[in-house]
Amino acid sequence: MEKNKVKLVQLSHKQARYIALVAEPKLLIIAQFDSIYELALCAIANKITLTQLIDDHLTTTALNYDDVYLGNSEWKLLPAFDHPTQPSACLVSGTGLTHKNSALNRQMMHQGEQKLTDSMVMYQWGVDGGSPKEGEIGVQPEWFFKGHGDVLKAHGQHISVPIYGDDGGEEPEIAGVYLIGPDGQPHRIGFTTGNEFSDHVMEKKNYLYLAPSKLRECAIGPELVITDDFHSFTGTVAIERNGQNIWQAEVRSGESNMAHNLANLEHHHFKYDAH
After folding, report:
1. Is 146:94 a contact under the CB 8 Å cutoff?
2. Same domain, 44 and 141
3. Which of 1, 82, 232, 265 could form a disulfide with 254 if both were Cys (CB 3.0 to 4.6 A apart)?
4. In a domain, 82, yes or no
5. Quick one: residue 65, left, alpha or beta (phi over 0 = left, psi -120 to 50 = alpha)?
6. Is 36 exposed, middle or buried (0-12, 13-18, 19+ CB in 10 A)?
7. Among 77-81, 96-100, 121-125, 213-217, whose mean pLDDT is lowest?
8. How far apart are the C-alpha atoms of 178 and 194, rounded to whole Å?
């Protein structure tokens, strides 16, 4: 198994949970664990790598990945990571204004203003001080709260606009997945794609409405990638209706496309006792 190619999914089948290794075109079931959360806890407790633990419990039981992905199977994809029994123990949060385009989009919401908005000012703070040297602390990013684990949706599930919302819009993201270990320290498990889903109409009224605009369901997955590489990611986000692609755009993320480095974001996420 190549260390930088490990991808996992979580599955449900007849009210039971499973995890599997992505080995396209198949999914190979991993025995003994019914969640990546439990797999990671075991690896941390035994001071071994996730890849070693996966190798030790990998089975030959295989599923057709395309059938599962397209919804043509009794096996269903779950969010790429969650707390299997206690959703309230899973915190979904994020950092904004870490990419230039996000800052420009926020600026355009209030383009009638003659001076730089607070959003552009904060973005520039990140450009100037968001990538400190090793051992130093950089400027803190914007932080927002999405909800607990019950807001997470899986591939193929519906995301709803709440009755109190003004809008619902996609926001493609790279989601970092972390687990607080028995030692009380955060451990990075991997990365997954996400649709953050926010209320841009509400946010446009006044940027101080940012917090309530974020309190929405969101999606992550289907795959959790076990890697330390966070340099550069490219992809495409699209909206389809009735089988027709009506809009799409290229997205770029990773440290090479951001105003903050990963170490600085992680420091500011986990400096709070409640995290």
Report:
1. yes
2. no
3. 232
4. no
5. alpha
6. buried
7. 96-100
8. 15
CATH of the domain at 228: 3.90.850.10
Helix-strand-coil split of the chain, %, nearest 5: 30, 35, 35
Alpha helices in the chain (DSSP H): 36-45, 50-57, 65-69, 100-109, 118-129, 200-205, 210-214, 262-270
Q: Which of 95, 219, 93, 60 is nearest to 154 (CA)?
A: 219
Separation of CA 12 from chain center: 20
Is 115 in the same domain as 170?
Answer: yes
> Among 58, 77, 96, where does a domain finish?
77
275 within domain boundaries: no
> Within 10 Å of residue 198's Cβ, how many Cβ atoms?
24
Cβ proximity of 64 and 161 under 8 Å: no
| Residues 128 and 190 both lie in one domain | yes
How many structural domains compose the chain?
Answer: 2
127: containing domain: 87-270
Query: Rounded to the nearest 10 degrees, what angle do helices 118-129 and 100-109 cross at?
Result: 160
One domain for residues 106 and 175: yes
Output the pTM of the full model: 0.92
pLDDT digits (tens, 9 = 90+) for 145-173: 999 999 999 999 999 999 999 999 989 99
- Per-residue pLDDT tens digits for 91-102: 999 998 898 766
